[in-house]
Structures are given as structure tokens and as C-alpha cells.
Amino acid sequence: MDILRLPGHLFLNFLSYMGQLAAxxxxxxxxxxxxxxxxxxxxxxxxxxxxxxxxxxxxxxxxTGAVFTAQTYFKFKDFGVESSVGALVAVSxxxxxxxxxxxxxxAGRVGASMAADIGTMKVTEQIDALRAMGVHPVDxxxxxxxxxxxxxxxxxxAESITFGLFASxxxxxxGFGVPKPWFWTxxxxxxxxxxxxxxxxxxxxxxxxxTIISCHQGLVTQNxxxxxxxxxxxxxxxxxxxxxxxxxxxxxxxxxxxxxGSGI
Length: 264
Description:
The chain is mainly α. The chain is built from 9 helices and no strands. It has one domain (50-257).
């Protein structure tokens, strides 16, 4: 009987979780309507999220572009089209690799930090103190992180694309001897604004997912330090899974509006 109940139990838990996220979204929408922006907190979070994540994003983007270039070159060489490696790397970095890998790295670094910071405030009753002083926790804790993430994620993805292409150029041209004019000619012939738009749009969506899921885990933290650790783990896992699942459907949708080779 427990086995039979398990699917229904999981489904009800999923509905409950989605309802909690929807309630948090409603509180955030109310905060936006009220116009309760806190510029200093937003600026602080931009530094923590955007500036603080630059190193990991640069390293991830550069080595992803480099290794993808190497693997593509090895296979393209069999068909005599190794000069086209730049085009494939550029499109892949813009549409998939840079957004997804940057999102996963930010979820691991920033999402965990959000859940831990807010969760610690929850178990030490600092959030209750904010309410006692008439400060809504969503206005003070969630919205600055949300706005900062929306600003930082597209910039981080653009940075990952830039360093990924630069690393690809170095590996292809100076590592494997691909002629420099051919490399850039194929990149510019087969990559256009729509590819970049896809990556930036994904950045906005991934930023929303990471912030909502991570802040929610912090706000519902219980049971002291154990609960903080559990909430942090759940924030990273849930954010990463949501990002990968949504990326599939978002890729299908964006390819409908921005098909490959549809430069504006």
C-alpha cells in the first residue's frame, strides 16, 4: 500500500511546493507594485552576485569553449571542414553552453549563498524581528536579490560567451593551425543577433528560477543549523534541475521565434 501511495504523495508534495513558489511570486509582485526598491541593497547584491561570480564564469566559459573546439576539430578534420569549427562553437556557446553552464555555476555559488543567508536569519529569528519592525522580509531580502540577479545574469552570460569564443580562437588558430581569416569568417557568417538574444533571454529566465527557488528555501528553513544545511542543498539541487528542465522547453520555444540563421 505504501508503494501505491508514493506517486500520489509525491504529486501532492509537488503541488504544495509549486503553490508555495506561486505565493512567493505573488508577494514579489506586490512588492514591485508598491515600489519598495532599496538601491543600496540592490547595489550590494549586484557586487555579490555579478562581480563575485566573474572568476568562476570566466574560467567555465573559457575552458568550455576550448575543449568544445578541440573535440569539434578532431571530428571535423575527418571531413575536411575544420575551418568551420568556429561557427559551431559560436552558435553553441550563445544558445546553449554559456547560458546553461553559467546558470548552473551561479546556482551552485549564489543560490547556495542566498538560501544559507536567509535560512540563517530565519532560524535565528531575525526575520521575525524584521516583521516586528514593520519590514516585509520579501521587500528587504528577496527583491534586492531578484533585481540584482536579473541585471547580473545576462551580463555574466555575455562574459562567458566572450571568453569562450576567445579561448576557441586561441585553440583553433594557434593550437591546430586553422587560418585566422577562415575562423572569423565562419563565425560571423553563421552567428547573428538572434543567437545572442537566445542566450540573454535564457539568462533572465534562469535568474528568476534561481532566485525564487533559493530564497524560498531560505524562508522555509527550520530546525537550526541542520535545516540551514538541508535548505542550502535543496536550493542548489532544485535550481539546477529546474534550470535544465526549463532549458529544454525554452530552447524549443526560442528556436520557434528565433530560428537558426534568422539574423535581424
